[in-house]
Amino acid sequence: EVLISLYRKLYGSVDNEKFTRMNDFSDFPLYFIQQEFMRAIGQIKVAGSTTPRIVQFLYQQLYYNDNQRNEFDDSWMIVAIIDGLTHTVPHKVDYKMEINLKHVKQVLPKIVCYLNIDKKMPSYQQIISGACLRFISKLIQYGHIMDNLKDSSIFSAHLKRGQSFHVRCTAIQLLALFIKNESSERDLNTILSLIEFDQSPFIRCHAVQELYKLPLFTKHQDCFLNNLHLVERLWRLLNEHQDFNLRCCLAQLYYTLYGRTTPTCVPTNNCAVVIDLKGQTARTNVPGIPSSFRFSAKFDDDRKYSSDDSTSSRKKKKHRPMS
């Protein structure tokens, strides 16, 4: 309440404070303060949830945003408002949050509209598209979108070349989060193909870094993504790729997923026997034989027999007389 009233006094219209006046970014300090107002208001929580009034306030700022007479671009201001709306998405739905969730979903068509506009008239580095993708990802992450609509194609479409660097990095981050939450093997193969074939070295390294920041599984965790195909593909990239920075990132990813031990999904060799001569023990995986057993080795007898054979062979040799 205090922040909203203070914002309206600073940036509200002269005729009616409930409406924000036209954008005027000539005063840079006030411009940056106005951006942080949007993010701070979106993070206000009452009894653990955002009130519908806050959602309506931020939606009005987005809906009535007017930049016609402003000589500066308002892309960063739109991003700040969308980030504030992203903070209003509730983590879980209960009786107190159902009303707030209805207001948040009403904002979704406007967000999609800005996403489509940014494709026709791109903003600086398409930062508006990145903010819209973060809002949609938050809805998917907290389960506010039905299962039949949970599709990562909106993130995969922004990975391709032709998109700005900022949008591609944002899409990689959100797709890695989607893979971790939904365990999508198809999207994992998409990122691995990006790592293997993309022409940008930074994009390749950034994709690997996002995967080990949000690990898909741990070495002691059962997950169907933990399979032999993934191990062989990572190992091949780690040993064959010529980019040493990428190889360092892949080594970090491999260590994060599997540690220093052999991955559990890798089958063991058949008829393997490990012999400990000092302890006179052996271990094997041959069927029909115990996994570990002791044996006795008679090295003295072997040496004796070998010495006897050598002496007998020397005796049989005849020396020819020297002429």
Write the layout of secondary structure elements.
Layout: H1 2-11, H2 28-42, H3 52-63, H4 75-87, H5 98-120, H6 127-141, H7 153-156, H8 165-182, H9 185-197, H10 201-213, H11 228-240, H12 244-258, E1 273-276, E2 281-284, E3 292-294, H13 299-316
Antiparallel strand pairs: 1-2, 2-3
Helix pairs in contact: 1-2, 2-4, 3-4, 3-5, 4-6, 5-6, 6-8, 8-9, 8-10, 9-10, 10-12, 11-12
Report on the biggest sheet.
3 strands, antiparallel
Strands of the widest sheet, in order across it, are 1-2-3
Query: Beta-strand level of the residues, as a percent range?
Result: under 5%
Class by alpha and beta content = mainly alpha
Provide the helix percentage: 55-70%
Low-confidence stretches: 293-307
Global morphology: elongated
Mean pLDDT, to the nearest integer, reads 80
Instruction: Output the radius of gyration.
Output: 33 Å
- The sequence of SSEs as H and E is HHHHHHHHHHHHEEEH
Distance between the termini: 124 Å
Q: What's the total helix number?
A: 13
The beta-strand count equals 3
Oligomer: single chain
Can you give a write-up of this model?
- With 323 residues, the chain is mostly helical.
- 56% of the residues lie in helices and 3% in strands.
- The chain is built from 13 helices and three strands, in the order ααααααααααααβββα.
- The protein has a three-stranded antiparallel sheet with strand order 1-2-3, with no helix packed on it.
